[in-house]
Design a protein that fits this description.
Largest sheet: none
Distance between the termini: 79 Å
Low-confidence stretches: none
Radius of gyration: 28 Å
Structural class: mainly alpha
Strand content: under 5%
Number of strands: 0
Helix content: 55-70%
Mean pLDDT: 76
Order of helices and strands: HH
Shape: rod-shaped
Length: 62
Amino acid sequence: MSYSWVDPHFASLYAHREDKRLAERLLVEAHERALRLPELGAITWRNSGWLESKLHGIPSCD
């Protein structure tokens, strides 16, 4: 099937409209996904455990 009868200006406008619609849909989905996922937060620092201290010769921080 040939689309040579389609106006190139109309095809460009239609493609732009579809790109905009898909981008908006992607943003909505990303926002909804962020609300569904738990907040992981940062990893907190801790002193070395007894096994780590013995293995590496690090003095225990009691």
